[in-house]
Design goal:
Elements (H helix, E strand, L loop, with lengths): L1 H37 L4 H6 L14 H8 L5 H32 L3 H13 L8 H10 L8 H21 L4 H9 L4 H12 L1 H17 L2 H6 L8 H6 L10 H33 L4
Helix pairs in contact: 1-13, 3-13, 4-5, 4-7, 4-10, 5-7, 7-10, 7-13, 8-9, 10-13
Length: 286
């Protein structure tokens, strides 16, 4: 009887937990649903009937998308290009340099390496607002205010999480594998790229996904560092969808927001299993 009561209590707890998680999921997805609905509605109805489904009266079709991409004198395709360039370069730099740094930190047992590791971890809790004004001035002085140089800034901000995850995974790799490579004549560079890097694949994919989602959606850093008259990423382009007297066409804004989040959502859904694997293999071990 006690066993049956225990099983019934477990089933009841699981049912309650399922209901709570389902409610949280609905609340989480609701803003995305609102964006999708309002991207096809006329601006007036976006303001008055925000959560109502489009009707024949409020339906705008693809007009919002066309207006959003052709609004003003700055081409939307340039914003897409700059977002892609910044995201790809930033993620590439973070993966290569942070994995190399993490390998060195994990293998060299010195006070210097420990200090660097704890500084990287500490950087994860430093609010961006504390350094943003100094960063903007430094970026201007060092000429890091272009889409081709701002990835260096992203490398600095993304190093904390990346090194934390990479160090944890490297510590789980048997040192004997690297010793065997050294006996076969591999130097440090060859050992890293031919032996260690392939084994870092789960964490590489996990860190890459997280960094891509962060850089692609980032607004504050590009608007502070870049010359927005010349270079605008997609979030900055959306911010400038304003008419006279500061009026905003919410329908066109929602349409561009939808276009900007679709690639990230597809990419995340396709790679979400790798995030779990990478976090479990990197951040937990070591």
């Amino acid at each position: 009887m006690d066993k049956q009561q225990t099983l019934a209590a477990e089933r009841r707890n699981k049912a309650i937990l399922s209901v709570v998680l389902a409610a949280i999921c609905i609340l989480w997805v609701l803003p995305v649903v609102a964006v999708v609905i309002n991207s096809f509605k006329l601006n007036t109805f976006v303001k008055t009937d925000t959560f109502a489904l489009p009707t024949s009266e409020s339906w705008a079709g693809m007009a919002n998308f066309v207006k959003g991409m052709t609004f003003g004198n700055y081409p939307f395709k340039s914003s897409v290009l700059y977002s892609v360039v910044i995201t790809v370069l930033s993620t590439g730099l973070i993966l290569v340099f942070c994995s190399m740094a993490a390998w060195y930190i994990a293998r060299v047992d010195s006070l210097f390496c420990k200090a660097i590791y704890f500084l990287c971890v500490f950087s994860m809790v430093v609010p961006f607002q504390m350094v943003m004004f100094t960063l903007s001035k430094t970026a201007d002085v060092l000429k890091l205010n272009t889409p081709w140089t701002i990835p260096i800034v992203y490398l600095g901000f993304g190093a904390g999480l990346a090194i934390f995850m990479f160090v944890g995974f490297v510590k789980s790799i048997p040192l004997e594998i690297e010793e065997a490579a050294a006996i076969d004549g591999c130097g440090p560079i060859r050992t890293f790229f031919e032996v260690v890097l392939p084994m870092l694949k789960p964490t590489l994919i996990s860190v890459g996904i997280l960094e891509i989602m962060w850089v692609w959606n980032d607004y504050l850093l590009p608007v502070l560092v870049l010359d927005i008259n010349k270079y605008r990423t997609i979030p900055i382009h959306i911010q400038y969808l304003k008419g006279s007297y500061g009026t905003v066409d919410l329908g066109a804004t929602m349409a561009l927001i939808l276009l900007s989040i679709i690639p990230v959502i597809i990419f995340y859904l396709a790679c979400q299993k790798h995030i779990i694997k990478g976090v479990a293999a990197g951040a937990v071990k070591g």
